[in-house]
Amino acid sequence: MTKNVGVALTFDYDAMSLWIGTFGAKSPSMTSRGEFGVIGVRRILQTLDHYRIPGTFYIPGHTAYAFPKSVQDIAAAGHEIGHHGWIHENPVTVSPERERWILEKGFKALDEVAGVRPVGYRSPAWDNSPESIPLLLEYGFEYESSQMATDFEPYWCRVGDSFTMDDPYVFGKPVNLVELPVAWHLDDFPQFEYVVSKGGIIQGVQTPRSLLQIWKDEFDYLYERIGTGLFSITMHPQVIGRAHRLLLLEGIIEHVKDKPGVHFTTMIDYCRKWKEGKTPSLSAEIGQG
Protein backbone atom coordinates (compact mmCIF):
# COMPACT_ATOMS: atom_id res chain seq x y z
CA MET A 1 0.00 0.00 0.00
CA THR A 2 1.41 3.39 -1.01
CA LYS A 3 1.38 5.75 1.96
CA ASN A 4 0.34 9.38 1.79
CA VAL A 5 -0.28 10.72 5.28
CA GLY A 6 -0.31 14.40 6.17
CA VAL A 7 0.54 15.41 9.73
CA ALA A 8 -0.71 18.80 10.90
CA LEU A 9 0.49 20.23 14.20
CA THR A 10 -2.04 22.85 15.23
CA PHE A 11 -1.91 25.27 18.15
CA ASP A 12 -4.77 27.31 19.61
CA TYR A 13 -3.00 30.38 20.98
CA ASP A 14 -5.82 31.43 23.31
CA ALA A 15 -3.72 33.14 25.99
CA MET A 16 -6.00 35.01 28.42
CA SER A 17 -8.99 34.99 26.06
CA LEU A 18 -9.84 31.40 27.00
CA TRP A 19 -10.15 32.26 30.68
CA ILE A 20 -11.98 35.55 30.14
CA GLY A 21 -14.25 34.68 27.22
CA THR A 22 -15.02 31.04 28.03
CA PHE A 23 -14.63 30.71 31.80
CA GLY A 24 -15.57 34.27 32.80
CA ALA A 25 -12.41 34.81 34.81
CA LYS A 26 -12.31 37.53 37.45
CA SER A 27 -9.13 36.33 39.13
CA PRO A 28 -5.67 37.54 38.05
CA SER A 29 -4.42 34.09 39.01
CA MET A 30 -6.70 32.43 36.47
CA THR A 31 -5.82 34.84 33.66
CA SER A 32 -2.10 34.43 34.42
CA ARG A 33 -2.39 30.84 33.19
CA GLY A 34 -3.07 32.25 29.74
CA GLU A 35 -0.09 34.57 29.99
CA PHE A 36 2.14 31.49 30.11
CA GLY A 37 1.19 31.00 26.46
CA VAL A 38 3.91 33.47 25.48
CA ILE A 39 6.56 31.17 26.94
CA GLY A 40 4.83 28.21 25.32
CA VAL A 41 4.88 29.82 21.88
CA ARG A 42 8.58 30.59 22.19
CA ARG A 43 9.32 26.96 23.02
CA ILE A 44 7.03 25.65 20.27
CA LEU A 45 8.65 27.87 17.64
CA GLN A 46 12.06 26.64 18.72
CA THR A 47 10.88 23.04 18.41
CA LEU A 48 9.29 23.54 14.98
CA ASP A 49 12.42 25.32 13.77
CA HIS A 50 14.63 22.51 15.04
CA TYR A 51 12.65 19.91 13.07
CA ARG A 52 11.93 22.31 10.17
CA ILE A 53 8.20 21.65 10.46
CA PRO A 54 5.36 24.03 9.52
CA GLY A 55 2.62 24.65 12.04
CA THR A 56 -0.87 26.14 12.07
CA PHE A 57 -1.75 28.61 14.83
CA TYR A 58 -5.37 29.63 15.49
CA ILE A 59 -5.26 33.00 17.21
CA PRO A 60 -8.08 35.07 18.75
CA GLY A 61 -7.89 38.78 18.03
CA HIS A 62 -7.63 39.43 21.76
CA THR A 63 -4.37 37.46 21.88
CA ALA A 64 -2.95 39.38 18.92
CA TYR A 65 -3.43 42.69 20.72
CA ALA A 66 -2.16 41.35 24.05
CA PHE A 67 1.03 39.79 22.66
CA PRO A 68 1.78 41.35 19.26
CA LYS A 69 5.48 40.42 19.22
CA SER A 70 4.67 36.77 19.84
CA VAL A 71 2.08 36.70 17.03
CA GLN A 72 4.48 38.51 14.70
CA ASP A 73 7.12 35.88 15.46
CA ILE A 74 4.68 33.16 14.39
CA ALA A 75 3.98 34.96 11.12
CA ALA A 76 7.66 35.73 10.50
CA ALA A 77 8.52 32.05 10.87
CA GLY A 78 6.16 31.26 8.00
CA HIS A 79 3.52 29.35 9.94
CA GLU A 80 -0.15 29.49 9.01
CA ILE A 81 -2.36 31.75 11.13
CA GLY A 82 -6.05 30.92 11.37
CA HIS A 83 -9.03 32.83 12.78
CA HIS A 84 -10.12 31.85 16.30
CA GLY A 85 -12.68 34.44 17.28
CA TRP A 86 -12.17 37.62 19.25
CA ILE A 87 -12.06 36.63 22.94
CA HIS A 88 -12.76 32.89 22.63
CA GLU A 89 -16.54 33.30 22.53
CA ASN A 90 -18.67 30.24 21.79
CA PRO A 91 -20.70 31.17 18.66
CA VAL A 92 -23.73 29.28 19.97
CA THR A 93 -24.00 31.71 22.89
CA VAL A 94 -24.12 34.95 20.87
CA SER A 95 -26.53 36.58 18.43
CA PRO A 96 -25.96 36.40 14.65
CA GLU A 97 -25.04 40.08 14.71
CA ARG A 98 -22.48 39.51 17.44
CA GLU A 99 -21.03 36.50 15.63
CA ARG A 100 -20.46 38.70 12.57
CA TRP A 101 -18.87 41.39 14.76
CA ILE A 102 -16.55 38.77 16.29
CA LEU A 103 -15.34 37.64 12.87
CA GLU A 104 -14.66 41.21 11.79
CA LYS A 105 -12.96 42.12 15.08
CA GLY A 106 -10.68 39.08 14.80
CA PHE A 107 -9.79 39.93 11.20
CA LYS A 108 -8.98 43.52 12.17
CA ALA A 109 -6.68 42.49 15.01
CA LEU A 110 -4.72 39.91 13.00
CA ASP A 111 -4.32 42.33 10.10
CA GLU A 112 -3.16 45.22 12.29
CA VAL A 113 -0.73 43.10 14.30
CA ALA A 114 0.63 40.60 11.80
CA GLY A 115 -0.61 41.72 8.38
CA VAL A 116 -2.49 38.47 7.74
CA ARG A 117 -6.00 37.68 6.49
CA PRO A 118 -6.78 34.09 7.53
CA VAL A 119 -8.61 31.70 5.20
CA GLY A 120 -8.91 28.98 7.85
CA TYR A 121 -11.20 29.09 10.88
CA ARG A 122 -11.44 27.15 14.12
CA SER A 123 -14.34 27.89 16.40
CA PRO A 124 -13.65 28.57 20.08
CA ALA A 125 -14.98 25.59 22.05
CA TRP A 126 -15.41 23.74 18.74
CA ASP A 127 -19.02 24.89 18.49
CA ASN A 128 -20.76 26.34 15.43
CA SER A 129 -24.05 28.18 15.39
CA PRO A 130 -26.59 27.70 12.56
CA GLU A 131 -25.22 30.95 11.10
CA SER A 132 -21.53 30.02 11.27
CA ILE A 133 -21.07 28.25 7.93
CA PRO A 134 -22.93 30.89 5.88
CA LEU A 135 -20.83 33.58 7.56
CA LEU A 136 -17.58 31.74 6.87
CA LEU A 137 -18.55 31.41 3.22
CA GLU A 138 -19.43 35.10 3.03
CA TYR A 139 -16.06 36.11 4.46
CA GLY A 140 -14.09 33.95 2.05
CA PHE A 141 -12.83 31.14 4.28
CA GLU A 142 -11.58 28.03 2.52
CA TYR A 143 -11.89 25.65 5.45
CA GLU A 144 -13.03 25.35 9.02
CA SER A 145 -11.85 22.96 11.72
CA SER A 146 -14.39 22.47 14.51
CA GLN A 147 -16.48 19.42 13.63
CA MET A 148 -16.09 15.69 14.15
CA ALA A 149 -17.98 13.65 11.53
CA THR A 150 -14.81 11.91 10.33
CA ASP A 151 -11.37 11.35 11.78
CA PHE A 152 -8.75 11.32 9.00
CA GLU A 153 -10.70 12.42 5.92
CA PRO A 154 -11.79 16.01 5.20
CA TYR A 155 -15.36 16.56 4.00
CA TRP A 156 -17.58 19.37 2.75
CA CYS A 157 -19.44 21.52 5.23
CA ARG A 158 -23.21 21.79 4.87
CA VAL A 159 -25.88 24.43 5.36
CA GLY A 160 -29.48 23.64 6.22
CA ASP A 161 -29.13 20.54 8.39
CA SER A 162 -32.17 20.17 10.64
CA PHE A 163 -33.15 17.86 13.46
CA THR A 164 -35.85 17.52 16.09
CA MET A 165 -36.75 15.01 18.79
CA ASP A 166 -39.56 13.61 16.62
CA ASP A 167 -38.31 13.59 13.02
CA PRO A 168 -35.53 11.92 11.03
CA TYR A 169 -32.28 13.82 10.63
CA VAL A 170 -32.29 16.02 7.50
CA PHE A 171 -28.92 16.60 5.82
CA GLY A 172 -28.43 20.02 4.29
CA LYS A 173 -26.66 21.15 1.15
CA PRO A 174 -22.86 20.68 0.81
CA VAL A 175 -21.03 23.95 0.22
CA ASN A 176 -17.59 25.05 -0.91
CA LEU A 177 -16.06 25.03 2.57
CA VAL A 178 -13.88 22.14 3.64
CA GLU A 179 -14.12 20.61 7.09
CA LEU A 180 -10.80 19.48 8.57
CA PRO A 181 -12.09 17.46 11.55
CA VAL A 182 -10.97 17.58 15.16
CA ALA A 183 -11.35 15.23 18.15
CA TRP A 184 -11.17 15.69 21.90
CA HIS A 185 -8.77 12.77 22.38
CA LEU A 186 -6.36 14.58 20.04
CA ASP A 187 -6.54 17.78 22.13
CA ASP A 188 -4.14 18.46 24.99
CA PHE A 189 -6.37 20.76 27.08
CA PRO A 190 -8.91 18.30 28.56
CA GLN A 191 -6.13 15.80 29.22
CA PHE A 192 -3.94 18.08 31.30
CA GLU A 193 -5.66 21.19 32.66
CA TYR A 194 -7.25 21.44 36.09
CA VAL A 195 -10.17 23.85 35.81
CA VAL A 196 -12.80 24.83 38.36
CA SER A 197 -15.82 26.40 36.66
CA LYS A 198 -19.56 26.81 37.11
CA GLY A 199 -20.03 23.58 35.20
CA GLY A 200 -17.84 21.62 37.60
CA ILE A 201 -14.23 20.51 37.76
CA ILE A 202 -12.11 19.38 34.82
CA GLN A 203 -9.69 17.00 36.49
CA GLY A 204 -6.66 16.88 34.22
CA VAL A 205 -3.04 16.78 35.35
CA GLN A 206 -2.08 13.38 34.00
CA THR A 207 1.21 12.12 32.66
CA PRO A 208 1.96 13.13 29.06
CA ARG A 209 2.96 9.52 28.36
CA SER A 210 -0.66 8.40 28.36
CA LEU A 211 -1.69 10.99 25.76
CA LEU A 212 1.41 10.26 23.69
CA GLN A 213 0.32 6.62 23.53
CA ILE A 214 -3.16 7.64 22.35
CA TRP A 215 -1.66 9.85 19.64
CA LYS A 216 0.77 7.14 18.55
CA ASP A 217 -1.98 4.53 18.35
CA GLU A 218 -4.27 6.88 16.41
CA PHE A 219 -1.51 7.66 13.94
CA ASP A 220 -0.49 4.02 13.59
CA TYR A 221 -4.05 2.98 12.70
CA LEU A 222 -4.17 5.63 9.99
CA TYR A 223 -0.73 4.80 8.66
CA GLU A 224 -0.88 1.01 8.78
CA ARG A 225 -4.53 0.24 8.04
CA ILE A 226 -5.72 3.15 5.90
CA GLY A 227 -2.55 4.55 4.44
CA THR A 228 -3.82 7.96 3.39
CA GLY A 229 -5.38 10.89 5.21
CA LEU A 230 -4.76 13.73 7.64
CA PHE A 231 -3.52 13.25 11.19
CA SER A 232 -4.23 16.54 12.96
CA ILE A 233 -3.62 17.20 16.65
CA THR A 234 -4.69 20.24 18.67
CA MET A 235 -2.43 21.83 21.23
CA HIS A 236 -2.46 25.01 23.30
CA PRO A 237 0.80 26.88 23.97
CA GLN A 238 -0.17 27.44 27.61
CA VAL A 239 -0.65 23.66 27.96
CA ILE A 240 1.83 21.88 25.69
CA GLY A 241 4.45 24.56 26.40
CA ARG A 242 4.98 23.35 29.98
CA ALA A 243 8.39 21.74 30.25
CA HIS A 244 7.41 18.09 30.74
CA ARG A 245 4.66 18.29 28.11
CA LEU A 246 6.97 19.65 25.45
CA LEU A 247 8.48 16.16 25.48
CA LEU A 248 5.06 14.94 24.27
CA LEU A 249 5.28 17.20 21.22
CA GLU A 250 8.80 16.02 20.51
CA GLY A 251 7.71 12.42 21.06
CA ILE A 252 4.95 12.44 18.46
CA ILE A 253 7.23 14.21 15.96
CA GLU A 254 9.92 11.57 16.45
CA HIS A 255 7.35 8.79 16.10
CA VAL A 256 6.11 9.89 12.68
CA LYS A 257 8.83 11.93 11.00
CA ASP A 258 10.90 9.19 9.33
CA LYS A 259 8.07 6.97 8.09
CA PRO A 260 7.87 6.70 4.27
CA GLY A 261 4.96 8.60 2.79
CA VAL A 262 4.52 10.93 5.76
CA HIS A 263 4.75 14.69 5.34
CA PHE A 264 4.17 17.59 7.73
CA THR A 265 1.70 20.15 6.45
CA THR A 266 -0.24 23.24 7.36
CA MET A 267 -4.00 22.90 7.40
CA ILE A 268 -4.50 25.23 4.43
CA ASP A 269 -1.98 23.35 2.30
CA TYR A 270 -3.71 20.04 3.01
CA CYS A 271 -7.12 21.59 2.34
CA ARG A 272 -6.10 22.94 -1.06
CA LYS A 273 -4.50 19.68 -2.11
CA TRP A 274 -7.56 17.68 -1.03
CA LYS A 275 -9.92 19.97 -2.95
CA GLU A 276 -8.19 19.45 -6.30
CA GLY A 277 -10.66 17.93 -8.77
CA LYS A 278 -13.51 17.82 -6.23
CA THR A 279 -16.82 19.66 -5.98
CA PRO A 280 -19.09 19.86 -2.94
CA SER A 281 -21.07 16.67 -2.39
CA LEU A 282 -22.59 14.64 0.40
CA SER A 283 -20.49 11.93 1.98
CA ALA A 284 -21.06 8.55 0.33
CA GLU A 285 -21.92 7.05 3.73
CA ILE A 286 -24.88 9.35 4.40
CA GLY A 287 -28.17 7.51 4.12
CA GLN A 288 -26.63 4.03 4.11
CA GLY A 289 -27.34 3.40 7.79
TrEMBL record:
Belongs to the polysaccharide deacetylase family. PROSITE patterns: NODB. GO terms for molecular function: hydrolase activity, acting on carbon-nitrogen (but not peptide) bonds. Residues 26-265 form the NodB homology domain. Is involved in generating a small heat-stable compound (Nod), an acylated oligomer of N-acetylglucosamine, that stimulates mitosis in various plant protoplasts. This is Chitooligosaccharide deacetylase. GO terms for biological process: carbohydrate metabolic process. CDD domains: CE4_HpPgdA_like. It comes from Lichenifustis flavocetrariae.
